[in-house]
Amino acid sequence: MGAAPVRVRFAPSPTGFLHVGGARTALFNWLFARHNGGTFVLRVEDTDSTRYSDEYVDAIYRALRWLELDWDEGPDVGGPFGPYRQRERVELHRAAAKELLARNAVYECFCGPKKMDERSEEPDDESDPESAPAAERSGECTCASLTPRMREELIGQGVRPALRMRVDPLRAVVVDDIVRGRVEFPAGTIGDFVIVKSDGGPLYNFAAVVDDHAMQITHVIRGEEHLANTPKQLLIYEALGWQPPRFAHIPIILNEQRRKLSKRDGATFVNEYEALGYLPEALVNFLVLLGWSPGGNRELMTRAEMVRDFTIEGVVKHPAIFDHAKLAWMNKEYLKQLPPDELARRVIELLEQRTPVPDRIDADHVARVVGLLQERAYTVAEIADQGAYFFTRGPIEPAPEALAKYCASPEAVARLREVREALSAASSDGFTPEAVEKAIRGLAERTALKAAAFIHPLRVAVTGQAVSPGIFEVCAILGRDVTLARIDALLERLQRPHAVGAEQSV
Ligand code: GLU
């Protein structure tokens, strides 16, 4: 008998944007499916309508698409067991609850939502072990021993029961986890837990089991913070006589201080990285190493290599540390490898989202700019920001420090005038880096001054900054007209009363 084809799922609760921890869980599932020629299912766990929002559902789809974690079954794709919005599957949950009642594996609990542990059992945040459900208070509930008459009475009064699993406190539940090995939970610490609320709504542990079974999930790969849920889920499988999937709990992600990753550590949601101009392929490469290693010192890997080499056996038990500096380094490496045309396309995409959209973002021009900035940049956004002076024909606002440093003296004004004159001699067509350089060097020779005396104020004029890539290339890319117009604008500004250093320059 051959093993069943691999079927895994990513089951996010749409209560927020996709967290990097969730993205890592999705990635591990996706890789496991692709490595094994299996199926990757997306199931949106939206039964708790008080906590989810459609905005977050869309944000999760968007983030997964951006990371190119395509799902084979689920929203938009269908599948043999669909649909995969959990709230559309209540009939299935109801039938399983009925079956559990018929098997006497659950009992009705009339304690009411306040007294009882009806709240959702999911951790709010995948990376937060603390938010995992506390031991439930089934000890307070005596509904297991209600007589039929008492039950009739309560029903007569209109009290609606929740359903609670009967758990033998003397037994133990063993989770045989692929990553963590054998973990034993004394059932006394689990207690009789609620699976269906008094309003009929299924709770996470129950709905997840029913759906995982119906979708023929073979492996449940999820964050370690769910380990405490697994014995409950195993009890439900057992009570229904269903074969459970294999479980693999992947290590928690911590910050560099080995504490829960929080907002203070920087971006924690996938969409934030997108907005910051990170490359999805770099983020994926970074995430794959959070708890998994391909062996050796390999770090930079293509997607194909990840698919080829990924195994659950390679997942480690110890916490994964989210090292922002490493992510930045990795992004820089990916950025360097990107063909300039492709990088230009991404810069343009980012610039097009800005308001107002800059007026100089045609592909050829942006590709030339990218050629100049690609080596040094850490993110796409950095190119868009640091190169802002390239993407407009209009005037720029020089940085006060740059003005103070290089344009405060009367000499600077004189040098700038000389630069203007020398550069205006060149034609627009001949405005190459070499031509600009020749003009400046010629000036330096004629005046017996250092070229820097001309370059510094010129740089402030055309870039607005005290530092920039090679100024001759910068001027050539900007073109003759824009270069001269910016020099004129700075000259005009420096001669205005109250300009930087104006008291000396008159
Ligand atoms: N909806 C749960 C979560 O987002 C799914 C956990 C699981 O994979 O079973 O944490």
Helix content: 40-55%
* Distinct small molecules: glutamic acid
**What percent strand?**
5-15%
State the separation between the terminal residues, measured CA to CA: 94 Å
Helix count, DSSP H or I runs of 4 or more residues: 20
Assembly annotation: single chain
Count of individual beta strands? 11
Spatial sequence of strands, sheet with the most strands = 3-4-7
- The average pLDDT value, as a whole number, equals 92
Query: Which spans of ≥5 residues are poorly predicted at pLDDT below 50?
Result: 123-137, 502-506
Instruction: State Rg.
Output: 32 Å
Shape, principal axes of CA atoms? elongated
Structural class, from helix and strand content? Answer: mainly alpha
The profile of the biggest β sheet is:
3 strands, antiparallel
List keywords for this structure.
506 residues; mainly alpha; 20 helices; elongated; disordered C terminus
Q: How would you portray this structure in words?
A:
The structure is a single chain. The protein is mainly alpha-helical. It is built from 20 helices and eleven strands. The strands form five sheets. A three-stranded antiparallel β-sheet has the order 3-4-7. It has a two-stranded parallel ribbon with strand order 1-2. A two-stranded antiparallel ribbon has the order 5-6. The radius of gyration is 32 Å and the shape is elongated. The structure holds glutamic acid. Residues 11-13, 45, 122, 126, 208, 222, 226 line the site of glutamic acid. Glutamic acid (GLU) is lined by residues 11-13, 45, 122, 126, 208, 222, 226.
